[in-house]
TrEMBL record:
Organism annotation: Clostridium uliginosum
Upper lineage: Bacteria, Bacillati, Bacillota, Clostridia, Eubacteriales
Cofactor: FAD; [2Fe-2S] cluster
Reported function: Responsible for channeling the electrons from the oxidation of dihydroorotate from the FMN redox center in the PyrD type B subunit to the ultimate electron acceptor NAD(+).
Protein name, entry field: Dihydroorotate dehydrogenase B (NAD(+)), electron transfer subunit
Residues in FAD-binding FR-type domain copies: 3-96
PANTHER family, alphabetized: DIHYDROOROTATE DEHYDROGENASE B (NAD(+)), ELECTRON TRANSFER SUBUNIT, DIHYDROOROTATE DEHYDROGENASE B (NAD(+)), ELECTRON TRANSFER SUBUNIT-RELATED
Pathway(s) of this molecule: Pyrimidine metabolism; UMP biosynthesis via de novo pathway; orotate from (S)-dihydroorotate (NAD(+) route): step 1/1
A GO biological process held by the record: 'de novo' UMP biosynthetic process
Coiled coil: none
One of the record's GO molecular function terms: metal ion binding
Length: 247
């Protein structure tokens, strides 16, 4: 399957926390909250990296990425007016046609990034909807202040206690206060949140994060377990009903 990449001009690329970068590029595409792009630096990155959309504003796309290997380290060298190759938007995002009722956005680490565009769109759809953010981090906190104009309340935890509650974000979350939980982060965290929601019969949707090679369902690298067998995270997800996917 041929995958078409295009070059996008870099607007900015800055480190906002240790090894966490905010990359803004020019792109005219229409996107849905929860989708992702495959990014690579031509002539350097052997395999593209899947990066969730953090924000879409007019003709600009914002990504947050963590420097975890050689590919993302190459991204840190990008400067204004450089070009990065990308393809997207890919995958199925959150279904904003649904009435989620009272919503908890639950995230861990870099999984907070896709929650931002989601919060914006939920607030645009319903200015009176209850939307609370629960964001957990290891030590340093990033992005959460930007949520204040879109959510009713921001709850933060860190493993070290440097910011907010010391411990896990799930210790602050009472799922029975919400109609729907929308979640993205480490699989162990999402597994716990799904279990909490099942116990209280609360709707839960999770955005899965997997290693990917193509992003369009051809390579089968990113499969995840569901009640109907293995599904492709990139093509069938990354957003799944938490009662359907097996974490």
């Amino acid at each position: 399957m041929a995958i078409s990449y295009r070059d996008a001009k870099v607007v900015s690329n800055e480190e906002i926390s240790k090894d966490i970068y905010k990359l803004v590029v020019e792109d005219e595409s229409e996107i849905n909250a929860g989708q992702f792009y495959m990014l690579k630096v031509n002539g350097q990155t052997f395999l593209p990296r899947p990066i969730s959309i953090c924000e879409k504003s007019e003709n600009k796309l914002t990504f947050l990425y963590a420097v975890v290997g050689t590919g993302t380290k190459e991204f840190t060298k990008l400067r204004e007016n450089d070009e990065i190759s990308l393809t997207g938007p890919l995958g199925n995002g959150f279904d904003l046609k649904k009435d989620y009722g009272k919503v908890a956005l639950v995230s861990g680490g870099i999984g907070t990034a896709p929650m931002f565009e989601l919060a914006k769109r939920l607030r645009t759809k319903n200015k009176n909807q209850k939307i609370d953010l629960y964001a957990g981090f290891r030590d340093d906190v990033y992005l959460v202040d930007d949520f204040n104009k879109y959510v009713n309340k921001v709850n933060v935890s860190t493993n070290t206690g440097k910011h907010g509650h010391k411990g896990f974000i799930t210790e602050l979350l009472n799922v029975e206060e919400y109609d729907t939980v929308l979640c993205c982060g480490p699989e162990v965290m999402m597994k716990k949140v799904v279990e909490m929601c099942k116990e209280k019969n609360v709707s839960i949707y999770v955005s899965m994060e997997k290693h990917m090679a193509c992003g369009v369902g051809a390579c089968l690298v990113c499969t995840c377990k569901t009640k109907d067998g293995h599904k492709r995270t990139c093509k069938d997800g990354p957003v799944f009903d938490g009662y359907y996917v097996e974490l």
